[in-house]
Write a structure and sequence with these properties.
Keywords: Signal. This is YceI-like domain-containing protein. This protein is an alpha+beta fold. It has two domains: 30 residues; 156 residues, Lipid/polyisoprenoid-binding, YceI-like (Lipocalin), CATH 2.40.128. It has an eight-stranded antiparallel β-barrel. Strand 2 and strand 3 form a beta hairpin. The longest helix is centred in the first third of the chain and has 26 residues.
Length: 191
């Protein structure tokens, strides 16, 4: 009979440890800052197909010293009525890969400097597209201020660098090059 209270105490201890671990993990993760804009242009031989989203999420991960950026592919809307509304979703295979994400290396010194960097800094960036993550270097302009960081960048990607393909119906109109623009995005430290 004494084994039952011991089992009960062990079970309570395990529940407490799991709950504590969940709280500690939640506190280590910072909240995302929303309402940031991203523009993705699908390049074609005869024109450009531009899509925008105001749903770019940004947060700074102090454990990895990275800005973590993410946008759901289905939030990309065409900037013209002449562009098929589902084109970006189809080209980026949004049904299978709903998120376009990238992590930008940003040392703590940049975050805490409090001074803007007028010239772009070339930062190592990990980009995940269609389930494949590649590392590249992209130019970024930073403007840190006390508890916030604003930044902007322009860079291009080739679908072929991600072993990604263009859906058959878009092969005649697209080159496989994507132009990415983020202008004045910001992360606010809420702690």
């Amino acid at each position: 009979m004494p084994a039952t209270p011991l089992r009960y105490q062990i079970a309570l201890l395990l529940i407490f440890m799991l709950a504590f671990n969940s709280v500690a993990s939640a506190q280590a993760q910072r909240a995302y800052t929303s309402n940031n804009y991203i523009t993705i242009v699908l390049e074609g031989p005869k024109g450009r197909y531009e899509f925008k989203s105001q749903d770019l999420l940004v947060r700074y991960n102090r454990l990895t010293d990275q800005l973590e950026c993410s946008v759901m592919v289905n939030s990309l809307a065409p900037t013209s009525d002449t562009i098929p509304a589902s084109m970006a979703y189809e080209v980026l295979y949004g049904a299978k890969f709903p998120e376009f994400a990238f992590q930008i290396d940003v040392p703590e010194e940049i975050i805490s400097s409090g001074k803007p960097y007028p010239e772009p800094l070339t930062q190592r960036t990990y980009i995940t597209l269609q389930g494949i993550t590649n590392q590249t270097r992209i130019p970024i302009v930073f403007a840190p201020d006390r508890n916030r960081l604003s930044f902007g960048t322009n860079f291009d990607l080739r679908l072929s660098n991600f072993d990604a393909s263009i859906p058959v119906r878009y092969i005649p109109v697209l080159t496989g090059r994507l132009l990415i623009n983020i202008s004045n995005a910001r992360w606010i430290d809420q702690y």
